[in-house]
Amino acid sequence: MLPIIDTHVHLGTSKFSGVTTTETELLESMERNGVAASLVMPQPTLANIQDIHAQIADLASRHPGKFYGIASLDPWMEEEPYVLQLEQCVKEWGFVAAKLHPMGHNISPLSDRCTKIYETAKRLNIPVIVHTGLGTPFSLPALLIEPARRFPEVTFVLAHAGFAIYTDEAIVAAKTCENIILEPSWCQTYTVQKMVSAIGHQRLIMGSDHVTNLPVEIMKYRSIGLSEEQLDDIFHHNAKRIFNLNYEGVTISEGL
Ligand SMILES: [Zn+2]
Q1: Would you say the C-alpha torsion 233, 167, 72, 53 has a positive or negative sign?
Q2: 150 C-alpha vs ligand 1 centroid, how far in Å?
Q3: CA 27 to each of CA 22, 59, 175, 202: distance values in angstroms, whole numbers, following the listed order
Q4: By the 8 A CB rule, do 226 and 196 touch?
Q5: How far away, in angstroms, is 8 Cα from ligand 1 center?
Q6: 132 CA distance to ligand 1 centroid (A)?
Q7: Which of 93, 140, 150, 247 is spaced 20 to 30 Å from 166 by Cα?
Q8: What are the pLDDT digits (tens) for 166-199?
Q9: What pLDDT digit, counting tens, does each position of 52-93 carry?
């Protein structure tokens, strides 16, 4: 079995749930669950986002190959500071994706304000992760079809793949656009099976979203009859490919 990569991890305090996740909790949870690398982003939060990004960058620099940052900047920001801060995250700190949280940022993915996210992601060659499910109508998975068509070079990751309730809609979006990837945290096991049949396991990645949910998400994939090769793709190869992870230097033993 290859090292597991968790593509959806938060650091800091959520303004919605009030949950705080610390660096120690992340490290302990990874150790306990055999996860070698985590992609870490801020929560939708009241804290200063660039401060949290700097903390994530610091975490990644102290644990090379174990943590990778994801930038979650507020799209209501003007274009210039938004682009400058995203560039700082990617070019200076090595972040591997941009996050749009239609509920946390209180914005539709179709808003003109979001175009700068997609344009900058295209220029920097990084995927855009979009929260889907909770917080409709802005979080409806189908709203990503139009941006995915407008930016065919950009990979769009639908975080939570519709969050159980809108899973079928997430599948429709992914079937419609090949550049849409599903990350089905919080979805039922049988809907994950449905995703594998509908779009193929190579367009699925594992994300935990909360440290206590990590063993649940890993077990979900292990309980739906996938082969070892399929599991290696979902847990490892797909994430590496989609996020262009520079994974050299991390061996299984170091990772675990
Ligand atoms: Zn999340």
Answers
A1: negative
A2: 25
A3: 9, 10, 36, 27
A4: yes
A5: 6
A6: 10
A7: 150
A8: 999 999 999 999 999 999 999 999 999 999 999 9
A9: 999 999 999 999 999 999 999 999 999 999 999 999 999 999
- For 146-168, the pLDDT digits (tens) are 999 999 999 999 999 999 999 99
Instruction: Please name the amino acid found at residue 131.
Output: H
Report CA(99)–ligand 1 centroid distance (Å). 10
Question: Does the pLDDT of residue 124 top 50, yes or no?
Answer: yes
How many C-beta atoms lie closer than 10 Å to residue 13's C-beta?
Answer: 18
Output the six-digit token pair for 128.
């855009």
Listed in sequence order, the residues at least 6 apart from 251 whose beta carbon sits closer than 8 Å to its beta carbon are: none
Ligand 1 centroid – CA 207 distance (Å)? 9
Domains of the chain by residue range: 4-255
Q: How far apart are CA 142 and CA 49, in angstroms?
A: 27
